[in-house]
Design a protein that fits this description.
Layout lengths: L1 H8 L1 H10 L17 H7 L2 H6 L4 H6 L1 H13 L3 H13 L5 H16 L11 H10 L9 H21 L1 H14 L1
Keywords: Cell membrane, Cell projection, Membrane, Nucleus, Signal transduction inhibitor
Main location: membrane
Subcellular location: Cell membrane; Cell projection, Dendrite; Nucleus; Perikaryon
Length: about 180
Amino acid sequence: MAALLIPWRNRGMRTRLGCLSHKSDSYNDFTAILPDKPNRALKRLSTEEATRWADSFDVLLSHKYGLAAFRAFLKTEFSEENLEFWLACEDFKKTRSAAKLAAKAQRIFEEFIDVQAPREVNIDFQTRELTRRNMQEPSLSCFDQAQGKVHSLMEKDSYPRFLRSKIYTDLLSQTQRRLS
């Protein structure tokens, strides 16, 4: 009887495994990836803007809808923690309250950097240890090396696949069709 209960106790794992069978590289309904009033957003997105995302990774990250499309793509690859970490670091750098700095740093470290973190990013041991040492006296730059490694990983690995993905090509096609 206990063996029968184990699968029911771990619903989170079942849900994750169930998602594997639904992994898709296509978004026919872009409302799932575009923030704020998706239909209007898609109408506002020009082919030129979407094409510019291929100019550089930083151009993609700086565009609200580019960021949303890239996030949707990373979800299909089960690697959205990289982008979420990068965004958390960007937000962290805007922290002006010394009182909040240490707590925010600890939260980011526990969520993304620490070994066995719930959304652990893939960084090397040296970077992880440097970041751990930086946590002794958190500053606005304590995640810089780890953030740089994750940015580089996304730029060299995920970004080229995104540009070849059905998500991106379908989005471009949809913006071009509007012009016809």
